């Protein structure tokens, strides 16, 4: 697996999501990755699953350039109004994007418009209390919320259900990730400002437990079907 240039959040999501994505993505699927940045997940999926058509949608041109280098289609547009026909997409990814979008309900509406009947939205968002880092949150700028460009701390599961239901989507799978131990290791490696030998190895070792350890998890991972 690539180690350089990966954002730390991408690395956490890789270990938390990868097994689920391989299971849910069928050969020949047409996929949109909203806010997909550099297309890391998508490039992995194209190698693991046959005949995928994937488009990475983002407003970050540097990220999209990396996605192009990985051989992916890219689209530099807002996810609120996409140039695709109704009912034309099999799967939409939206990983830790919704909390950054002012008109979040419009994004869900647009995703529903694009999905085929039986199509799936695979989405991750922080829970309603946001994400905090053990031992660090009394320090300035040591949260993942508003100091990191979030417009809201996160979402409760009932609020997500209501938002999806209004747009003809129903949740068929739910779990959580970013557990207490992962958040501790993340904070120590990337946010604490301190250094200790082996902290990178410690971080990578801890996040491999993400699919198994849910204690203190602070992010939703959902699949909603149209």
Task: Give an overview of the whole structure.
With 226 residues, the chain is of the alpha/beta class. The chain has one domain (9-129, 140-177, 219-225): Rossmann fold (3-Layer(aba) Sandwich). Helix content is 34%, strand content 21%. The protein contains seven helices and seven strands. The chain has helices at residues 8-24, 40-48, 61-69, 104-114, 157-165, 180-191, 199-207; strands at residues 30-34, 53-57, 73-75, 89-95, 115-126, 170-177, 219-225. A seven-stranded mixed sheet has the order 3-2-1-4-5-7-6, sandwiched between helices. It is globular, with a radius of gyration of 17 Å. The chain starts with 7 loop residues before the first helix and ends with a strand.
Features:
226 residues; alpha/beta; Rossmann fold; 7 strands
Radius of gyration: 17 Å
What's the order of the H and E elements? Answer: HEHEHEEHEHEHHE
Proportion of strand residues:
15-25%
Major sheet: 7 strands, mixed
The CATH superfamily is identified as Vaccinia Virus protein VP39
- Total beta strand runs: 7
Output the structural class: alpha/beta
Form type: globular
Architecture in CATH?
3-Layer(aba) Sandwich
Strand adjacency order, main sheet: 3-2-1-4-5-7-6
**Contiguous helical run count:** 7
Q: What is the CATH class name?
A: Alpha Beta
Mean pLDDT equals 91
Distance between the termini: 33 Å
At CATH level 3, the topology is Rossmann fold
The tally of structural domains comes to 1
Question: Which percent bin holds the helix content?
Answer: 25-40%
Task: Point out poorly predicted stretches.
Answer: none
């Amino acid at each position: 697996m690539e180690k350089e240039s990966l954002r730390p959040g991408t690395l956490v999501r890789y270990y938390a999501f990868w097994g689920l994505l391989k299971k849910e993505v069928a050969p020949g699927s047409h996929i949109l990755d909203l806010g997909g940045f550099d297309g890391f997940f998508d490039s992995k999926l194209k190698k693991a699953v046959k005949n995928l058509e994937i488009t990475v949608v983002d407003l970050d041109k540097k990220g999209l350039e990396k996605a192009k280098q990985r051989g992916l289609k890219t689209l530099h547009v807002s996810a609120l109004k996409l140039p695709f026909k109704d009912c034309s997409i099999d799967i939409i990814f939206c990983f830790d994007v919704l909390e950054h979008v002012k008109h979040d309900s419009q994004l869900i509406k647009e995703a529903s418009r694009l999905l085929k009947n039986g199509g799936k939205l695979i989405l991750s968002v922080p829970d309603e209390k946001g994400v905090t880092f053990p031992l660090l949150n009394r320090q300035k700028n040591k949260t993942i919320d508003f100091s990191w460009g979030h417009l809201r701390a996160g979402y409760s599961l009932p609020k997500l259900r209501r938002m999806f239901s209004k747009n003809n989507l129903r949740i068929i799978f739910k779990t959580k990730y970013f557990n207490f131990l992962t958040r501790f290791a993340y904070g120590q490696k990337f946010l604490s400002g301190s250094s200790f030998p082996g902290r990178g190895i410690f971080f990578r070792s801890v996040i491999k437990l993400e699919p198994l350890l849910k204690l203190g998890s602070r992010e939703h991972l959902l699949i909603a079907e149209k």
